[in-house]
Amino acid sequence: MSIEAREARQPWILLAPALTAIFLLLIVPLLFIVVYSFWLRSAVGADTPGFFLDNWKAALTDRFYRDILLNTLKISAITTIACALLGYPAAYFIARSQGNKMILLIMLMLPFWISYIIRTMSWINILGVSGALNSVLMSLGIVSEPIQMLYNETTVILGLTHFLLPFMVLNIFVSLDGIDTSLEDAATSLGATRWQAFLQVTLPLSLPGLAAGGLLCFVLGAGTYITPVVLGGPRDAMFANLVFEAIIRQLNWPLGSALSLLLLMVLGVLVAIYNRYLGMAQLAKGLG
Amino acid sequence: MDDTTRYERLRDRFQNGDISRRKFFGLLGAAGAAYGLQTPFAKYANAQTASQVRFDGWGGIVSEAFRKHAFDPYTAKTGVKVVDGTFPGGDEYLALVRASKEGEYNIAHLSGVFDYARYHSFGLASELNLDNIPNMKLVMPALTNAFSSVTPGSLSAVPYDYGTTGLAYNRKYISDEEMKEKGAKILIDAAYKGKIGGWSDWRTRIWYGALQTDQDPNNITDIEAVWNAVRAHRDLALKYWASGAELMSLLAEEEIYVTEAWSGRIYALQEQGHDIGYYDPPNGFGWQECLFVLKGSPMAACEELLNFMLDPVTSIAVAEGQNYPPALDPSKVDLGTKIPTLPAFDATGTLSGLTFANPGYWNGNEAKWSETFSRVQRGY
Fold first, then answer.
1. CATH number, span A56-96+151-287
2. What's the CA gap between B249 and B25, in Å, rounded?
3. Contact across the interface for B374 and A43, Cβ inside 8 Å
4. CB burial class (10 A; 0-12, 13-18, 19+) of residue A256?
5. Does the beta carbon of A45 lie under 8 angstroms from any beta carbon of chain B?
6. A141, exposed or middle or buried, with CB in 10 Å at 0-12, 13-18, 19+?
7. What is the CATH number that goes with domain B52-162+287-355?
8. What pLDDT digit, counting tens, does each position of B85-135 carry?
């Protein structure tokens, strides 16, 4: 075998374990889901195998699923914007801090050590009728009765923002950290104010990080179902909740499979658009 | 079950007159012949002896009671480990079992005869050898008959406890008189908007919708009226709770003042000193729970565990721990002083005062109603 042929094979040999794992743990289960989505649910007993389009027809034409899907995208978009607005200053501060950058980064990573559900439930102790915020407001005499703050769409967005903010900060930080600070100094030496230097130099250069964080927050947010269950009211649901209900509560695995694939396709299109214009390299850096 | 226990049970049956002398010696002879005929390879069958049994239940104080009063003593006595898991609801658990390999899950603390029927429909049921569970004779016939009617001639589960899903209310804001007067309709009373809760379970929502529209929950004639009641409740409710722990937290923290609730959990809140009332409205939701053995389980170990759990000492201790009356017949077993004070307790042992879900009726409507509820919940 020639050296060229051996070198051409080497990456594939090195990639083989990872590709095998991805094939067995991701592609094969996904294929099962695809097959299942064409089956029909049986009220009791085994589902009916075959090639039926009923589930796809329901998923694509039923207003109920379309409305919840659009609402899911709306909630994810609002959450992503909130994460960007809160995350950018924090990431900027960490990137520009001298000496204690590592401590700040560790603090940023700390929430990942605590269960997502516990973090979500912590808001009940903060915003509940007998929670910390109401206790403070009442002890200061600002309100006489506790304010009902929990169990609505706003608290769902709050919980999601809490969950996703570190992903946004990390991505922006990676982008900002790679920008040469002397560029800002050069801009100010040429007459720009600090604000103008930021707007015209730093911000455009950090946009790939912002976009990568935005994509990550949006995709993770759109796929969540715990937050609406814990912090939402009776009506609040995201698309993943419908998937959960179809599969778990209604035991309608075929419809649940079609719904989960629909969500996957919608999010896949968004990732494809991102990749087309910005590429995945920045995302990999942010996750790395 | 070891051979000594097996022999002791056989001897007990003979001494109690359940089997004849001829049959007793015949069985002993058969056991001896089987022992004599076994090959040297028989010792390898020990590899199939169950060293552990998987048990899944409702979590919280219920699981604590099971662990403390049943599983730990059982393991200490037999050496068989009980691995206990929890689930938030029967639907979730059924989905897990369907997705699992046979034998992965063994015993489940299931609720309602409709669950018993569903597991049979999905081919997930085992068949118990009741000779290995002599304590079954202490169980109320009313509970056993409900399961026998689904699987005539055999059982896949033993009844274990019962309770109700009634109305829980904070006495600081709602008096006993008001609760009795309004009954189930208090859950759609606009005066308590934002302070009402409800279980996210579609059966419970429809059951209470039927009560709110003066219909028989086991024979609903106007389902649209029920859906309208569910919608009215949804618009007034602050939160649909999804677990017993969440129910207790919402009431204890005064996030909600009234909700339907599981009787045992409310008793636990009362024991903790919370002034929470509990009221079973006419036709309130009664249910019986069973210990269901799934297909593919190690039957001898499971039957031994079930018998151990039905032993009055164990059963009463678990009942007092989880606050649900046991399945033991009060006319046959002295249930002590606490159990008669538990909500839903029936001293007659007939359970004639409770209304249970008709499994055929509810399972027959499950597909349509569970899906419709998902839509109604979201504003449709």
1. 1.10.3720.10
2. 59
3. no
4. buried
5. yes
6. exposed
7. 3.40.190.10
8. 998 788 889 988 988 989 999 999 998 888 999 899 889 999 999 999 999
